[in-house]
Amino acid sequence: MTKGVKIVTIGGGSSYTPELMEGFIKRYEELPIREIWLVDIEDGKEKLEIVGEMAQRMWDASPYDVKIHLTLDRREALKDANFVTTQFRVGLLDARVKDERIPLSYGMVGQETNGAGGILKAFRTIPIILSIVKDMKELCPNAWLVNFANPSGMVTDAIIRYGKWEKVIGLCNVPVMAMMQEPKLIGKTLDELVYSFAGINHFHWHRVQDLEGKDVTSQIIDRLYEKYNGLPANIFDVPFFKEQLKQMNLIPCGYHRYYYRYEEMLDHLLQEYNDPNVGTRAQQVKQTEAELFELYKDPNLYHKPEQLAKRGGAYYSDAACETIASIYANKNTHIVVSTKNNGAVPDLAPDDVVEVSAYIGAAGARPIAFGSLPPSERGWLQVMKNMELCVEEAAVTGDYGLALQAFTINPLIPSGETAIRVLDELLIAHKKYLPQFAEKIAELEAAGITVKDEIARNLSKEEVVNV
Amino acid sequence: MTKGVKIVTIGGGSSYTPELMEGFIKRYEELPIREIWLVDIEDGKEKLEIVGEMAQRMWDASPYDVKIHLTLDRREALKDANFVTTQFRVGLLDARVKDERIPLSYGMVGQETNGAGGILKAFRTIPIILSIVKDMKELCPNAWLVNFANPSGMVTDAIIRYGKWEKVIGLCNVPVMAMMQEPKLIGKTLDELVYSFAGINHFHWHRVQDLEGKDVTSQIIDRLYEKYNGLPANIFDVPFFKEQLKQMNLIPCGYHRYYYRYEEMLDHLLQEYNDPNVGTRAQQVKQTEAELFELYKDPNLYHKPEQLAKRGGAYYSDAACETIASIYANKNTHIVVSTKNNGAVPDLAPDDVVEVSAYIGAAGARPIAFGSLPPSERGWLQVMKNMELCVEEAAVTGDYGLALQAFTINPLIPSGETAIRVLDELLIAHKKYLPQFAEKIAELEAAGITVKDEIARNLSKEEVVNV
Amino acid sequence: MTKGVKIVTIGGGSSYTPELMEGFIKRYEELPIREIWLVDIEDGKEKLEIVGEMAQRMWDASPYDVKIHLTLDRREALKDANFVTTQFRVGLLDARVKDERIPLSYGMVGQETNGAGGILKAFRTIPIILSIVKDMKELCPNAWLVNFANPSGMVTDAIIRYGKWEKVIGLCNVPVMAMMQEPKLIGKTLDELVYSFAGINHFHWHRVQDLEGKDVTSQIIDRLYEKYNGLPANIFDVPFFKEQLKQMNLIPCGYHRYYYRYEEMLDHLLQEYNDPNVGTRAQQVKQTEAELFELYKDPNLYHKPEQLAKRGGAYYSDAACETIASIYANKNTHIVVSTKNNGAVPDLAPDDVVEVSAYIGAAGARPIAFGSLPPSERGWLQVMKNMELCVEEAAVTGDYGLALQAFTINPLIPSGETAIRVLDELLIAHKKYLPQFAEKIAELEAAGITVKDEIARNLSKEEVVNV
Amino acid sequence: MTKGVKIVTIGGGSSYTPELMEGFIKRYEELPIREIWLVDIEDGKEKLEIVGEMAQRMWDASPYDVKIHLTLDRREALKDANFVTTQFRVGLLDARVKDERIPLSYGMVGQETNGAGGILKAFRTIPIILSIVKDMKELCPNAWLVNFANPSGMVTDAIIRYGKWEKVIGLCNVPVMAMMQEPKLIGKTLDELVYSFAGINHFHWHRVQDLEGKDVTSQIIDRLYEKYNGLPANIFDVPFFKEQLKQMNLIPCGYHRYYYRYEEMLDHLLQEYNDPNVGTRAQQVKQTEAELFELYKDPNLYHKPEQLAKRGGAYYSDAACETIASIYANKNTHIVVSTKNNGAVPDLAPDDVVEVSAYIGAAGARPIAFGSLPPSERGWLQVMKNMELCVEEAAVTGDYGLALQAFTINPLIPSGETAIRVLDELLIAHKKYLPQFAEKIAELEAAGITVKDEIARNLSKEEVVNV
């Protein structure tokens, strides 16, 4: 490496960028950054400028001399990068509004990484990430790609499987939050416990041992029913069934609520959807975002504002910084990441991407072999991973039948005519970002299919006008 | 073998017994039967006598001298049996009414082999089949057990896994019906096609080749949308989505409708449930059964009445007779059976019971290796098989947490409080047959939980009184 | 299919061809052949003519009107073929002499399908079979390829793996001979037993059950030590260790002697090698072949001469005819064939070619799932199959390091300098047929490496002169 | 834990004990030891006393107050132990002499952990380790067992598989030595490289990456052919074939020489065996040991003598101390250990013990998922692991047929009559330690089988007299 590290952040205009800067500043001694490039697209130019100036102010207020470059030219930025982080959202928050509202308008879970919404997000994101990988092969073939664009697991899997790019690590803040909150419950610090995670992104379980090697998972489970606040802000906090958790003797991840408490999670989402004063998560986030960007505009603000923690992805960026520092300084830090299985979860194929406990160092992620899961977790994990494989292939090929297969086996989507309708409306609503499905979308439009949900429909219209 | 074959039928008072007799009479030349023992329990004594006399009349009208023995003493019957068939229904049709109505009273699929009903049926049936196996080890250790007690797959799996009894074959009429109906669709006879089935009971797919080895699955799929009548009488005929079938290039089984067209199947079940003039399938069947037994009482009836075909299980018994004859005469007939996987479906463990194309002969079932299924089918098959494993273990241990796990991962049961409620009511309703869950049931009763559905509640009451 | 079947035999000048003709004549009623094309290369032209005329005489003496076509133009022959059989030997028997004598000259097993000789035979044969497959894709894309060119397992595997041709069945006479001889040992006919084979070509085991489903393997093993003559003529008959066979409760194949009785088999081979009046098997066979061709020249001979049975491959052709007839007439015959695993032997990958019991019909081979083998057989099978994979890849790529890897893990080749020397001499000796290794061979020649064994060296010289 | 750690060393009279003490003294600050118990058997009493006094002197010369307890009463020692290390050798060095000389007297590899010798060592050691585990379950159920009794892999596997004891880690010095020597070859320190090991004990491979994640295995391989001295003292240093190593792009372990250079290793062993002035390794070691014990007797010696490094097991004890300290202080050190696979090497079963890179901390070993090996390594690893399974089961059951199976598939034992003879003589020679084979041994003795090698025969006689 030439002196100092070059970091490129695609989707640099994100409201999370200040957290990323804070993480880098904190770790500068072990990760001596030379320059940071924030890349965004035309539609995000304004945000990029606001957040870019904020980022530069943060560095200027630090003891370190780091230059922030802002650009809409991805290829210019990627040249000779050492680390590329991806945090973009294709279609911005408006796309998320549609991913949420269209399924909910038919009484189905509308969520950005689970269910129908997550599938459509993958359809939009995978082609873009593959084009980034293509650029990286040419412009920075030795760089590491640290992805936290969602759905992080499928995106990471597609990068390896279809992009044939092995130097990638996928990140998520969910395990971080569990490890921040749980130890307190049993009067321990994280250093006094050993965590082992296994599964896939937003669908993993963990067990915990103490320093004498004793399993304390059950003890934590007991305390979870007394007090707990370890969920990302975007997940409604309905408790798991205690008899179930005690039986599995594993702690599910926050997102597992959608699967273990489907009924209540759906009710909650529908309640927000139906209340015009609340709206779905994306609508709430749009508000938070607007506020954040107002704050960022303040030329006297040179540190991450507290309000950022309200966003569901809090700590995401911190995990990213720690991952990058661990690779650079060969720290062998225990981080839970999306990486190639290699056998760590023997119930899935060795070349599937999984989300597991790993030690992160110069060689990237070294996943810890967890062993087979019990039948109840194993079966469910297998259907979810295979669903992901269908989604990825459909994202690459635009095969509608396969999209339908993915919808059908997804546990959050009741199959039938309504599911078809939801799929079709989502395709139409995201038309701009789904060239691979162009033919099918034309056919649906010709058949007169339109988006029922008014808000989603109007957002779709605007978009078309804008382009 | 001593001269002639001794056959024992447990659940001999079933309305299907005449079909079984017909099947044996038809095959007498290759399967020379010496004696048939029909066994039933006290509650089924009256039916046993009616059907037993009918059976004897059928044989008397045949050229063969076969004696029908009727008994309530299972152990007496099993002594030195060559083949034991099991077709009993623990709790008779009333139990099925509860399996259907209790879930439906909460808007969930109520069906006797799928969803909550199927799980409860397994809870009741597995302990009984294991006690039969225990008797067989003592009284007829060389006999073959041919099971068609439902849920046939889980029951067969439990026989091998927990009963440690390897000489068993599980049967189902669903593949038979597909092979009877589909060839006509493309102007062929069954002899002109090669069928390959893979999956588990009530959850399998098949592909078809012609005599030149060419895959004609897609051709059959096309014709299925023109005309088709290959479903068992108990499955509502809503078509699969054509784009989905064309993508998979496999034909799902009839029961797959519950998974691929969940919404419409549930609507249909609810419609029947809510219509007092129709009622759920069990209620309809009770009517058919009553009519059948009226017919059977006729001392001049000595052949299987046509009305029997209306029952969903038609051809079940024929498959059983063909299986027995194939073992006895080493015929190597292609039959689709539940048997130990041994690798035939590499996506499941070698010791899982699967339902696959097999050649049946003196060595029992020799399953044909099908190869890996594509991701969409693979993942779903894996979750279903693992759900079965949870159900079986819960049936053996009475572990409520595991019952809950099975409910949770079952694709036909939306998880949440309602699922818990359905499970709890079902446990209470079937109390008499669930000694393994006695402690939990007592706890539920103490908590004041009662069955909401009036019909189911009343049936449960009667039962308690009767015992 | 147009009226009547067109069969093409590549390596038609083989001395086995009359057996093939006999097999077709015997099955004409179920396999109505229209025409047979015997194809050979320039070097085999004389033999082709002798055997071709003999073949025509055989048909002329039959009630059937079938025309034998002789050609050196493979592509002309392949046009619209229904079945293609491959029985060629690259380099003719002289190549086999070298495969045997060169290893033996260094005290190593020299055998045409096992050890160093088998590996070199694969190196010569795989490129040719892949070129045949390439022609078939163009000229007869619906034909079945029935291979009995050795090493049959690796050749069949390469056809599927590298040739991407799925309509292939690999054959061997070893299982046939076991099934012909063993039943008598326990006073049974083959019809009274159920055979189950699992493994790979020349490295498989079988178990046997009687018509009551009882395992009689152990009983056969006991009798094997009393009297037995079920070996191909080319395998020296040293008995297996009885305590070992009783422990495994499986019957190994004849070729397993090389592995279970390595010491004695090697001694025997060396004894023949060192006795100028005997010579290695290929030298003996050359004599038998010369005699056979003398016989074939007799214009009055119109049936297969008895002397043919002395060749090791007896019944090979009969198995081929039965396979073809079973496919054509959808007979579902139990034949042991090399075919894609699909899970039949779960200890190997689903896409590995294995040699297993299969039912042969219109859809080709349907392998029977055998289940996992015990550790002793499993481990050995795994090393052998993986050795095959190395050989095949080296045959395709000419990678010398990989050839060395294959030599190293092959249980019949003690690793070390001598193994290298044997490999190098074999490469030089077969130079004409190993263009993929041309560069390495040039290097070896430049280093002055020559063939030590005089007979092998002289044969190599002639060959070079001839070309 | 009560204050301070209690360590129990079984086989405490070993000449390696001083190294162990040194390791503990060095790590006292992170591993505060309270007391150390050295346990041995009656036959080793004298050595125990010598080495025990030496050990106490070492601690007395340190700043720490640790008491060494010497005992022949294993159960007394085990009470409330925190860590138990096992380094015993059943039958002492005399048994090793026999393991080496008997095979060599028939021209076969005689080596204490590979080939026939290693199998017999497992037969003697496994029953003893299982009896230790039985005691531990009763007396110190929370202790960790750190095994370096050889054959370390099979012993560790048997502890988990048959002993049902999960808190065990198996150790070996071979990976340590590779990691000490190789980095220098490319001008690096160990800190500047990332090592990944996979395989089983004495049969593993590794790859190496630098701090930029680049694979430098090939670079190290190149330098290995220039200068290298990274082998344990007990392995003859014949180089691997370079073309082979470059092809695999992995570095085999030192013991792999027996497999990759069988011929030369055998020649070397035979040369030593046949030279009365040299003798086999055990004979040489006996000399070294005698010298060491003479040194240990010196009351002024209170540090590990340099001569100890001559023993093949050097650094073994250091690895053990580091492992114990890493568990105690939850250090997450990268150590290569024998531990349950859990998927780390997907080519073996999840419950097989493998030897892999792992992070060692409070939860024991967390193996790093390595992914599938290429065919050449995969196949060989599979046959070796399955051989181990046969050995372990034969060690537990005394099944002679299975012992024969293990001998047969072991790549270092040419099968045949001679192998049988070697097995039989070894059984007789080790009679005292093989009660599980008593019946077969009596049969062999009755048949007049005696040990051919004079030295081994005489050692066997003495032993019988002594007991």
TrEMBL record, chains A, B, C, D:
It holds the Pfam family Glyco_hydro_4C. The record marks E112 as: Increases basicity of active site Tyr. Residues 197-413 form the Glycosyl hydrolase family 4 C-terminal domain. Mn(2+) binds at C172, H202. Binds 1 NAD(+) per subunit. Keywords: Cobalt, Glycosidase, Hydrolase, Iron, Manganese, Metal-binding, NAD, Nickel. PROSITE patterns: GLYCOSYL_HYDROL_F4 (PS01324). Substrate binds at R96, N150. InterPro entries: GlycHydrolase_4_CS, Glyco_hydro_4, Glyco_hydro_4_C, Lactate_DH/Glyco_Ohase_4_C, NAD(P)-bd_dom_sf. Its cofactor is NAD(+). The keyword Metal-binding applies. It comes from the Bacteria. One of its GO terms (biological process) is carbohydrate metabolic process. Belongs to the glycosyl hydrolase 4 family. This is 6-phospho-beta-glucosidase. It comes from Neobacillus bataviensis.
